[in-house]
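Hi all, posting the design record for the shared folder.

TITLE: backbone redesign
STEP: 1 of 1
STRUCTURE INPUT:
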């Protein structure tokens, strides 16, 4: 395989890491029945906080932990507003997005465009020497490896363990899960915190690994695309990860087209346009019609690849009678 192509594929894997974290984190949260719409603001605030914490402590891992803490706190506000105060999750999340965006600009203004620490590269011995595969997947840093591990672990947890079954149950039929002994609201708190922490880690990954440093709004928009990827991926970890890598690849292709002289506006809009078209296709029911008219042997495969059904009780408050 051409060395330039291998380098480009490795770059896509690295650039996708924060988007994978944020999308998988929101998948966990929504599988539990909670909608956290604060992703874009959370990523901005955790990117700023992560960079500032790493800059002042001269330790990138302090920055990563600070980003995780920010994401978990914002997610806790979303969960508590819904479970304890019975407020609309979407409205609370949207307000938090705007608040976190403004906070990141205000609190980070003294740290704009400063050189700071970055997560060191750590090629994995032996694995990085494997032709092609090793060069693409095992020549990165710990945060990129964590994003790869996260995909497999979350899939295993959701579909191969009893706690994962409970997670899916509280998002689909919380009353039935409660009858079977699940503490629905406690689990919703737990998984919303975990999902929010991963979103916060995504923000810190941006400022410490992908787009080094901090400047106002320098990762704005990535939270919205992570939310779209969750829908695109049908709330399934593998498909969500594929959506993240696809979007990163489209961005890389856009940059290449721009170098060839294509319109800058059109090039920058291309990934967003394709994502919107995909979401419209999923939401219109066209995928179900495609599955229905397919040959019987292909239906099962297409159903697994194309079906995108949200958790039945997504955004629905659970109250114990």
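Okay, here is what came back for every position:
SEQUENCE:
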């Amino acid at each position: 395989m051409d060395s330039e192509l291998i380098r480009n594929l490795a770059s896509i894997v690295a650039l996708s890491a924060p988007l994978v974290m944020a999308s998988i984190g929101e998948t966990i949260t929504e599988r539990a029945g909670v909608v956290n719409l604060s992703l874009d603001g959370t990523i901005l605030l955790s990117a700023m906080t992560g960079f500032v914490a790493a800059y002042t402590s001269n330790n990138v891992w302090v920055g990563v932990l600070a980003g995780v803490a920010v994401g978990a706190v914002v997610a806790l506000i979303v969960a508590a507003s819904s479970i304890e105060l019975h407020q609309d999750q979407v409205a609370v999340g949207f307000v938090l997005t705007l608040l976190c965006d403004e906070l990141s600009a205000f609190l980070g203004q003294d740290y704009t465009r400063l050189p700071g620490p970055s997560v060191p590269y750590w090629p994995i011995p032996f694995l990085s020497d494997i032709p092609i595969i090793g060069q693409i997947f095992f020549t990165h840093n710990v945060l990129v490896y964590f994003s790869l591990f996260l995909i497999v672990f979350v899939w295993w947890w959701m579909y191969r363990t009893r706690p994962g079954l409970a997670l899916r149950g509280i998002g689909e039929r919380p009353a039935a899960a409660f009858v079977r002994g699940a503490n629905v609201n406690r689990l919703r708190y737990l998984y919303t915190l975990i999902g929010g922490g991963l979103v916060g880690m995504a923000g810190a990954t941006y400022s410490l690994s992908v787009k080094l440093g901090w400047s106002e709004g320098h990762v704005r928009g990535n939270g919205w695309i992570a939310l779209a990827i969750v829908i695109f991926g049908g709330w399934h970890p593998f498909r969500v990860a594929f959506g993240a890598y696809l979007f990163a690849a489209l961005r890389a292709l856009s940059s290449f087209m721009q170098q060839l002289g294509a319109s800058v506006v059109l090039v920058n809009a291309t990934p967003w346009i394709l994502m919107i078209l995909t979401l419209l296709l999923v939401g219109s029911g066209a995928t179900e019609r495609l599955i229905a008219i397919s040959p019987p042997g292909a239906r099962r495969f297409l159903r697994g690849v194309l079906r995108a059904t949200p958790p039945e009780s997504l955004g629905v408050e659970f109250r114990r009678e």
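COMMENT: The two ends are 62 Å apart (CA to CA).
Let me know if anyone wants the other runs.
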